[in-house]
Specification:
Elements: H1 6-16, H2 20-43, H3 47-63, H4 67-77, H5 84-99
């Protein structure tokens, strides 16, 4: 899945306006939060921790209008804790976001 979340880019642009510094800060904070929640998901060893991390990812995606992230978080919620396929998809999303 190639990163192409126009909704997310539009949300950042609307929030930052014409301020490129603010745009860079918003993207950085989003990326840091994304990475942190994926790390928590990766380390989750019980249903509760897995669910909390997945819900945080879903909330992050919903807050920034990132439907691809919301979909991946929902996939995690529907999966068993530690599901490697879901984790790899989220890691790919984060890698592509951070490279954009």
């Amino acid at each position: 899945m190639a990163f192409s979340d126009g909704h997310l880019d539009a949300t950042f642009a609307a929030a930052a306006g014409e301020d490129p510094t603010l745009l860079a800060e918003l993207r950085a904070v989003f990326g840091e939060s994304l990475d942190r929640q994926i790390d928590l998901l990766r380390r989750a060893r019980c249903d509760g921790n897995w669910t909390v991390a997945a819900m945080r990812l879903k909330s992050l995606g919903a807050s920034f209008d990132a439907p691809d992230l919301v979909g991946l978080a929902e996939e995690a919620l529907d999966s068993a804790p530690g599901e490697p396929v879901v984790i790899r998809k989220l890691e790919r999303f984060a890698t592509e976001f951070n490279a954009a």
